[in-house]
Amino acid sequence: MHAQAHVVEAVRRGIATGELLPGQRLVEADLGEKLGASRGMVRGALMKLVHEGLLEQIPHSGVRVRAITEEEATQTAEACLALQAMCVAKAARMAGEADVERFHRIGVALRQAVTSRNLTEFERAVGEFDDLVLRVSAQNVAGEIVGRLRVRIAHTERKALLRGSALEATALRYEEMIEAIAGGDAERASAALASLVAV
């Protein structure tokens, strides 16, 4: 992987996992040392992420992770859900027996993560679910768009999952989607995904 692309992916991953938080300043020299990239490569990568809306440039202060408003987070989540609903409906129509078995294994992982209140494992299982939906539905373009948008709202989603019984409620929606996919019910799968916005 090209050094600049490596830096872009590392920063995206850091934002998605919560390692890099909204408002956190990114120092070119530190990133370059950590990732084994030149300052020029790091600067180019950071500017790319500024243009994507993940970072913001502060005059005379460098670059920091951009905090988004509640309204922007809501709109981003709604856009993601619309694309994901299309993908999950198509996955329900196209899933084979081996795919259904994989979805059920993901369901088990989600339940275990909820039982142990392990947010990292929960997010990992959700990521596996999303990846499998995209593979089965063959919606690569939608997947690329959703992937980029979800990084923007990762921090907001993580905070929401920690409130009250949101983790349990979200897991139930995923289980509903898995059962709908297993039954080939595209409409039910899509409805279960749409209900995530109410969790």
Automatic annotation (TrEMBL):
InterPro entries (UniProt xref): GntR_C (IPR011711), TF_FadR/GntR_C (IPR008920), Tscrpt_reg_HTH_GntR (IPR000524), WH-like_DNA-bd_sf (IPR036388), WH_DNA-bd_sf (IPR036390)
GO molecular function: DNA binding; DNA-binding transcription factor activity
Domain HTH gntR-type: 1-68
Keywords annotated in UniProt: DNA-binding, Transcription, Transcription regulation
SUPFAM superfamilies: GntR ligand-binding domain-like, Winged helix' DNA-binding domain
SMART domains reported in the protein's UniProt record: FCD (SM00895), HTH_GNTR (SM00345)
Pfam families noted in UniProt: FCD (PF07729), GntR (PF00392)
Name recorded for this polypeptide: GntR family transcriptional regulator
Organism, scientific name: Amycolatopsis acidicola
